[in-house]
Amino acid sequence: MLECDIRGNKCHKPVFVMKMFQSSVFCIQPPGDSYTRRSTFDSILAGCIPVFFHPGSAYIQYLWHLPKDYTRYSVFITGKDVKDGKISIEKILHRIPKSKVVTMREEVIRMIPRVIYADPRSRLENFEDAFDITVKGVLERVDKLRQELREGANSSSFDFGEEVTWKYSLFGTVDEHEWDHFFYKRNG
C-alpha cells in the first residue's frame, strides 16, 4: 500500500507508484472522475493484473488495444455489489487459482506494447504501439463505412446513436447486452 500522507507525499511521485504496482499481483482500478484512470495503464506497464468495477473502465473504450476476452488479463467485480457489501474483493481475488494468476500476468505483459507510445526514433521493428493500433483501427473503420456507402446498403454503422457504438464495435450488434444496466439509468 502506498502511504499518501502530507509528509513527503509519495503518491505524486511516479517512481513510488510504479514500484508499488510492480510488487503487486492485482491492482484495484475503481472509476474516478471518468471511467478510466491513468493508473490502469501504469498497472499494466508494471505487469499488474487490473481489477475493474465497471465495464466502461477498459472493456468498451479500448476495443482495439485490449483483448476482447477481458477474463484473460483482468478481473471484473461489479462495483455495486462491493458498495452494497454483498461481496469481498479480497475473497474473490484469493479464489483465483495461482496457475490462472500466472496466465493472466503473462497476458498483461504481452499487452504492454499495445498501451504505450514508442519513440519513433527507436529501432524497435515489428512493434505495433498504441498509436499504430489506433491509426489502423480508424482506417479500418473508415474503409468499412466507405464500402457500406458504396454498396448503398442501409448501413448498420449509421443506424444507432453514439451511446451504443461500444456495443456495435465490440459485438457487431446493438442488441441488448448484459452490461446495458451499467450505462443506462432506468426511470422510476
UniProtKB/TrEMBL annotation:
Principal place where this protein is found? Golgi
Asked if the keyword Membrane belongs to this entry, the reply reads no
Q: What InterPro entries is this protein classified in? A: Exostosin, Exostosin_GT47
GO CC, sorted alphabetically, is: Golgi membrane
Location of the protein in the cell: Golgi apparatus membrane
MF terms in GO: glycosyltransferase activity
- Domain Exostosin GT47, by residue range, is 11-90
Asked if the keyword Transferase belongs to this entry, the reply reads yes
Sequence similarity? Belongs to the glycosyltransferase 47 family.
What protein is this chain from? Answer: Xyloglucan galactosyltransferase KATAMARI1-like
Biological source species: Quillaja saponaria
Lineage, opening ranks: Eukaryota, Viridiplantae, Streptophyta, Embryophyta, Tracheophyta
